[in-house]
């Protein structure tokens, strides 16, 4: 087969351009990325051979080799791992599969400053492409273990790459970087210097469990220098805590988390006894773009006695902790353990419970610290953690203790539930909240009026999951969680004598006829029309019955394919509003004479609009409204 030329996919080309023009200041990390890929390839081959003994592959000396050629100015990273087939090279190296990448590139274009760019790039494992930060040409030769033919891939990173079949490729992959011309001004970045390579490996890849060997040759050197192993290969989680530096932990995180930035927190756990294991977990500082997509790869790495077993081991942590990265190394599992077995294993179940508690107690400590770190954590992962309020009854108390929410108490700082309870007014029995699409929409909702006037704090909940957890949790510290858009309120009744009740009684009587008539007239859409105690400014609002699903929740269930009946709402009128007063006077005087029916409809439509909904027949609503406005001119 001859050499063929292909075009990079658009996103891949854009990323390559970024690498070539190198917005990332720390170029050394290219080597970490290539070594990381090589290490993964060795893991994969070992596992495949374990599963399929007949696989024609040599696993006797799996390792990574670094070759420096000073004269040719090349650096080669070679592994004898799984390798890639011809098709795989095209798919894996020529395109970018990550769905978040398009979004990433868009953000990158919008980000004006270099620091922003660097931060953004850090969110993406640009991996292999990072070689183009230091090389103006890259050659990759690979042969998939078990296959006869190899593949050569070359590119200058400028829009095209070539593929060719090769006959004599060794098993695994070698990536040769044709380094950019030496910069006499900057000897620090001489990647043909064995000293430099040694330093980079020590710093970024010491924990890699496969040997990383280096041979360096060049003019006058016969190339028979003995290879030296650069990394200690010691698993960080197995080393005494005080002998591992923060930096080393962070480098491990970057390797397994495919993140270029430091984690927010490192968590270590050592379990002794009948089922021994060690865990090294990390809380990332940033949520990945695909955290809420169906195919988000969740879970930590599972090792058995220092041997890598699987990535994304979802049995070790509950789904709402899917952002946690790390390693769990168990002493007493079979090397052949499967995902199915793990899901049912009693020890794994106990492990998951313990790890979950450990992660949550770490979050609790962050919270107690009252630093920016908690604020960062909650901003990035709060929405996911709230899923736990619904699914993990066992840890609900802890989750409620660490959760924080936007509130009318403070425009910027979120509050904990405990904080809310401490600020509750005398006689206030419930914790009030309102859900909606945005803080602004909620704050402007008519449901808030009476609460605002009386200075009663309301939690402002804007995540989809909020609708669900408030229902599931029900109360905090003995106080009910109550939506200000549901049920009836009696904000004034507390601590007063019967006078207020009497007053209300009278008012209800005065409106009884109108309410009943409107209830009938709008009967298709509302189940009741009543007077409101929550409105001060708006003429009307719609509310849900205390036990009905809210419209948002109904929509959510429908989106998930569940049949739910549309619950009729309740229309509440503000007896203090001139429009409502006038309507009542007209009704009392003339009965349902001309025009009143339309006014009732308009009033209902306005109430629906005010909570962000849509009138049932928008065109009819607009027509009626326009006629009214015209008459008022
Ligand atoms: P990432 O490592 O984040 O997936 P890369 O661009 O670095 O992104 O690599 C893309 C894919 O190419 C890898 O997921 C892997 O399947 C394959 N790959 C890269 N390097 C190697 C290698 N040395 N051996 C085998 N496969 C490799």
Compose a concise summary of this entry.
The protein has 633 residues and is an alpha+beta fold. It has 20 helices and 23 strands.
The global form is elongated
The portion of residues forming beta strands comes to 15-25%
Q: Estimate the mean pLDDT confidence.
A: 88
Fourth-level CATH superfamily of the largest domain: Histidine kinase-like ATPase, C-terminal domain
Number of domains: 4
The small molecules bound here are:
adenosine-5'-diphosphate
Radius of gyration, Cα only, in angstroms? 32 Å
Major sheet size, sense and barrel closure:
9 strands, mixed
The low-pLDDT segments are: none
| Range of helix content | 25-40%
Distance between the termini: 83 Å
CATH architectural name of the largest domain: 2-Layer Sandwich
What is CATH's topology name of the largest domain? Heat Shock Protein 90
Task: Give a verbal description of the structure.
The chain is α+β, with helices and mostly antiparallel strands. It has four domains: 4-232, Heat Shock Protein 90, CATH 3.30.565; 237-375, 2-Layer Sandwich (Ribosomal Protein S5, domain 2), CATH 3.30.230.80; 404-483, Rossmann fold (3-Layer(aba) Sandwich), CATH 3.40.50; 493-632, Heat shock protein 90, C-terminal domain (Four Helix Bundle (Hemerythrin (Met), subunit A), Up-down Bundle), CATH 1.20.120.790. It is 39% helix and 20% strand. The protein has 20 helices and 23 strands. The strands form four sheets. Strands 1-6-5-4-7-3-2-8-9 form a nine-stranded mixed β-sheet, covered by helices on one side. The radius of gyration is 32 Å and the shape is elongated. It starts with a strand and ends with a helix. Bound molecules: adenosine-5'-diphosphate.
């Amino acid at each position: 087969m001859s050499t063929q030329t292909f075009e990079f996919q658009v996103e891949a080309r854009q990323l390559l351009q970024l690498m070539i023009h190198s917005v990332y200041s720390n170029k050394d990390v290219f080597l970490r990325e290539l070594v990381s890929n090589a290490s993964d390839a060795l893991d994969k081959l070992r596992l495949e051979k374990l599963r399929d003994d007949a696989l024609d592959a040599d696993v006797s000396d799996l390792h990574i080799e670094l070759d420096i050629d000073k004269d040719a100015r090349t650096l080669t990273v070679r592994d004898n791992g799984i390798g890639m087939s011809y098709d795989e090279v095209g798919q894996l190296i020529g395109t970018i599969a990550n769905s978040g990448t398009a979004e990433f590139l868009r953000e990158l274009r919008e980000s004006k400053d270099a620091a922003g760019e660097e931060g953004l790039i850090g969110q993406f494992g640009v991996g292999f492409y990072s070689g183009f930060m230091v090389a103006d040409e890259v050659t990759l030769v690979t042969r998939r273990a078990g296959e006869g033919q190899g593949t050569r891939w070359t590119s200058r990173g400028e829009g095209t790459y070539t593929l060719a079949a090769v006959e004599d490729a060794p098993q695994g992959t070698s990536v040769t970087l044709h380094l950019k011309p030496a910069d006499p001004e900057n000897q620090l970045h001489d990647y043909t210097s064995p000293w430099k390579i040694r330093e980079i490996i020590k710093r970024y890849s010491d924990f890699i469990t496969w040997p990383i060997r280096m041979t360096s040759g060049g003019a006058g050197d016969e190339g028979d220098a003995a290879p030296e192993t650069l990394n200690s290969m010691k698993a960080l989680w197995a080393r005494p805590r005080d002998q591992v530096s923060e930096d080393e932990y962070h480098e491990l995180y970057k390797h397994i988390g495919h993140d270029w930035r430091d984690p927010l927190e490192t968590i270590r756990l050592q379990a002794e006894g009948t089922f021994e294991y060690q865990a090294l977990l990390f809380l990332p500082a940033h949520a990945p773009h695909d955290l809420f997509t169906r195919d988000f790869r969740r879970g930590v790495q599972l090792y058995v006695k220092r041997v890598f077993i699987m990535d994304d081991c979802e049995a070790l942590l509950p789904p709402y902790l899917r952002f946690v990265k790390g390693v769990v190394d168990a002493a007493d599992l079979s090397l052949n353990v499967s995902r199915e077995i793990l899901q049912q294993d009693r020890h794994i179940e106990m492990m998951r419970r313990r790890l979950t508690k450990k992660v949550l107690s770490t979050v609790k400590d962050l919270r107690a610290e009252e630093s920016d770190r908690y604020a960062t954590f909650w901003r990035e992962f709060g929405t996911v953690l709230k899923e736990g309020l619904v699914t993990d009854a066992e840890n609900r108390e802890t989750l409620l203790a660490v959760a924080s929410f936007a509130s009318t108490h403070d425009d910027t700082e979120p509050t904990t539930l405990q904080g809310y309870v401490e600020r509750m007014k005398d006689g206030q029995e419930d914790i009030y909240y309102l859900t909606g699409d945005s803080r602004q929409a909620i704050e402007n909702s008519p449901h808030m009026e009476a609460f605002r006037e009386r200075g009663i704090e309301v939690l402002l909940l804007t995540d989809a999951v909020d609708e669900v957890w408030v229902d599931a949790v029900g109360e905090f510290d003995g106080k009910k969680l109550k939506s200000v858009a549901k049920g009836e309120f009696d904000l004034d009744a507390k601590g007063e004598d019967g006078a207020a009740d009497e007053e209300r009684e009278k008012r209800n009587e005065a409106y009884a006829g109108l309410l009943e008539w409107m209830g009938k007239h709008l009967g298709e859409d509302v189940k009741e029309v009543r007077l409101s105690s929550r409105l001060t400014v708006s003429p009307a609002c719609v509310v849900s019955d205390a036990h009905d699903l809210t419209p948002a929740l109904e929509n959510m269930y429908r989106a998930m394919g569940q049949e739910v009946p549309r619950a009729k709402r309740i229309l509440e009128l503000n007896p203090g509003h001139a429009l409502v007063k006038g309507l009542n006077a007209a009704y009392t005087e003339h009965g349902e004479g001309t025009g009143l029916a339309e006014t009732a409809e308009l009033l209902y439509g306005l109430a629906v609009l005010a909570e962000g909904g849509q009138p049932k027949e928008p065109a009819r609503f607009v027509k009626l409204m326009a006629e009214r406005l015209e008459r008022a001119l």
